[in-house]
Structures are given as C-alpha cells and as structure tokens.
Amino acid sequence: MNKIAILYGSSSGNTETVANRIKDMFDGKADVFDVGSVSIDEIKPYQYLILGASTTGIGDLQDDWDGFLPTFSSKMDFTDKTVAIFGLGDSASFSDSFAESIFILHDELKDKVKIVGEIADEGYTYDDSLAVEDEKWLGLALDEDNEYDETEERLTKWIEQLKEIFV
Ligand SMILES: Cc1cc2nc3c(=O)[nH]c(=O)nc-3n(C[C@H](O)[C@H](O)[C@H](O)COP(=O)(O)O)c2cc1C
C-alpha cells in the first residue's frame, strides 16, 4: 500500500493532469483519486494526502470538491495525517481571485490536520488572492492557462520540499 493519496477535483482536466504528474514525480509511489467518485474508506489508509483543486466562479471551489469537502472534513479521521494543497487558476482572467481554491481547502482543514507545503510568493503575476498570507502561498499555485512553462519548475521545487516531510 502506498502512503500518499493524491485527491483531485478537475472540471476541464488541468488539475487531473497535474495530479498524475505529481504521482510520476513520486516515482509512482502515490495513488490518484478523483473526489467526484472516491469514498472516505478508500483514503483512510493513507498517511499523506495531497489535495488538488481548480478555482471556479469568482474564487469558488471546483464543483466536485464543493460536494466532497463537507464529508471529507467531517467524516475523515485526520489523526497522524499530513496534508499538502495545490490549486489551479488563471492569473490573467481572474487576477483578483487567483487560485483561491487553495484558501478554501486550507481554511476548512487548518484546525483539523497538519498542513504543509507553503511556498514563497515569488514569480507570480496577479492582483489578489486569499490563498496568500504573509507573502506565502498556503499551497502550490499553478496556472496552466498562462504560465504553463513555469509548472514543471514549480512542481519540482514543491515536490522536493514534500519529499523531505513525506518519509
Ligand atoms: C467559469 C470559470 C471560473 C473561473 N474562476 C477562476 C477564479 O476565480 N480564479 C482563478 O484563479 N481561476 C479561475 N478559473 C480558471 C480555472 O481555475 C483554470 O482554468 C484551471 O486550470 C481549470 O482547471 P481544471 O480543468 O482542473 O478544472 C475559472 C475558470 C472557469 C471556466
């Protein structure tokens, strides 16, 4: 049994693609689940949970996550678990609510589980995001619409950071 579960919610496939890329970067030692169809029982055995969600509406959580988060938050036993969050957004068209899915997941779970994987707010171009506190992103923000050429390097740095923690 692998120790890492990657849970994603994706409307047009971008977050799903990144979730599978993250699995590859952990040399396949992670399992990937769509929150539109996963059950709490399936993810119970995993110690490390990587949560990925795109942002929709104006700073809203991706639809499948919106349905799953209340159950996940209330029914999951988070004892001894560690969570990391990544979020997809569009920093040009939604510059005032860029990747705020990260904030929504973080805000719901921060008092229940240890959350890791903050990164410095450097190299991003956007106007505002609730997912940035004290010049740090609460998780990894990615922009496949405008900054896809940055994704590989951003992911590599983040996964290196997580590998120090996910032992
Ligand atoms: C209706 C709609 C609303 C969106 N709202 C936001 C937003 O508020 N903030 C943001 O950063 N991106 C927003 N986006 C951009 C998506 O989050 C982005 O395209 C993402 O890569 C989609 O990932 P997915 O295919 O995994 O759902 C929006 C996209 C759509 C279609």
List descriptors.
10 strands; Rossmann fold; globular; 167 residues; alpha/beta; 3-stranded antiparallel sheet; 25% strand; binds flavin mononucleotide
Please give a structural write-up.
The longest helix has 18 residues, at 148-165. This protein has five helices and ten strands. It has helices at 14-25, 40-43, 63-75, 101-109, 148-165, and strands spanning 4-9, 30-34, 48-56, 60-61, 82-88, 114-116, 119-120, 132-133, 136-137, 140-142. The protein is α/β, with parallel strands linked by helices. Helices cover 34% and strands 25% of the residues. It has one domain (4-165): Flavodoxin domain (Rossmann fold, 3-Layer(aba) Sandwich). The strands form two sheets. Strands 1, 2, 3, 4, 5, 6 and 10 form a seven-stranded mixed β-sheet that branches. A three-stranded antiparallel β-sheet has the order 7-9-8, with no helix packed on it. Flavin mononucleotide (FMN) binds at residues 10-15, 54-59, 62, 88-90, 94, 97-100, 144-145.
Overall number of strands: 10
Integer-rounded radius of gyration:
14 Å
Main sheet specs: 7 strands, mixed
Q: What share of residues are in beta strands?
A: 15-25%
The assigned structural class equals alpha/beta
Task: Give me a quick take on this structure.
This protein is of the alpha/beta class and 167 residues long. Helix content is 34%, strand content 25%.
